[in-house]
């Protein structure tokens, strides 16, 4: 059974590049980016893990932890990390889960048989501090992920958790936002959106981003 948005992210205990990890305990009160890759010592994955490592300051600002996964073993992960750090000129400061028995891959539906019977595809999950799944993105094996987009969506999720707004297409932190259709009372609108709004259509009300 596949995961859906709003589901509780399955807990698991598995070996990793830093030893045994109990997922929910490790996550603590942080947001989490959990992402799988098809195999160690592969070119696209090497660039992806390098990019993730370089984003650590951005993740830290957003209270986000990263954790990767493949069906290879912990010792292979440790050796591959050396290659990633050397070729991508960074430090891998996050764990890589060793899902050799494919337990986590099963819980998160990471193996798509029409892509591979044994390797995990490029699945990515954003999990909030309440352990709820907030974003699911699945890429084919041949296509590296856009981690700028992952940061953008986390920004949007954290903003909309704190304020009654929605974000338009291609929104970036600092851009105008949208007043949801569920907010109708003009007095409530004045209180919630003191910067005012423009309304090119009755259903399209645009207001400056609230201060986070």
Automatic annotation (TrEMBL):
Annotated Thioredoxin domain residues: 3-159
Report the family membership.
Belongs to the peroxiredoxin family. Prx6 subfamily.
Coiled coil start-end:
none
**Keyword Oxidoreductase on this protein?**
yes
Its biological purpose is as follows: Thiol-specific peroxidase that catalyzes the reduction of hydrogen peroxide and organic hydroperoxides to water and alcohols, respectively. Plays a role in cell protection against oxidative stress by detoxifying peroxides.
Do the record's keywords include Cell cycle?
no
Q: Which UniProt keywords apply?
A: Antioxidant, Oxidoreductase, Peroxidase, Redox-active center
Annotated GO MF terms: thioredoxin-dependent peroxiredoxin activity
Q: In its UniProt entry, what is this protein called?
A: Thioredoxin peroxidase
Q: Which PANTHER family match?
A: THIOREDOXIN PEROXIDASE, THIOREDOXIN-DEPENDENT PEROXIDE REDUCTASE, MITOCHONDRIAL
């Amino acid at each position: 059974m596949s995961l859906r948005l709003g589901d509780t992210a399955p807990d698991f205990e598995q070996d990793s590049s830093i030893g045994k990890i109990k997922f929910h305990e490790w996550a603590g009160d942080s947001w989490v980016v959990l992402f799988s890759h098809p195999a160690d010592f592969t070119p696209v994955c090497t660039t992806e893990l390098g990019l993730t490592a370089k984003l650590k300051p951005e993740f830290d600002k957003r209270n986000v932890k990263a954790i990767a996964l493949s069906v290879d073993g912990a010792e292979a992960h440790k050796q591959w990390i050396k290659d990633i750090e050397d070729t991508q000129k960074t430090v891998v400061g996050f764990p890589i889960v060793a899902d050799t028995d494919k337990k986590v891959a099963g819980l998160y539906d990471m193996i798509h048989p029409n892509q591979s019977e044994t390797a995990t595809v490029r699945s990515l999950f954003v999990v909030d501090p309440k352990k709820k799944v907030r974003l699911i993105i699945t890429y084919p094996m041949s296509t590296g992920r856009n981690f700028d987009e992952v940061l953008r969506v986390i920004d949007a999720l954290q903003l909309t958790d704190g304020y009654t707004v929605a974000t338009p297409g291609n929104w970036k932190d600092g851009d105008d936002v949208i007043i949801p259709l569920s907010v109708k009372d003009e007095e409530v609108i004045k209180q919630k959106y003191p910067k005012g709004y423009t309304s090119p259509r009755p259903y399209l009300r645009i207001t400056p981003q609230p201060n986070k």
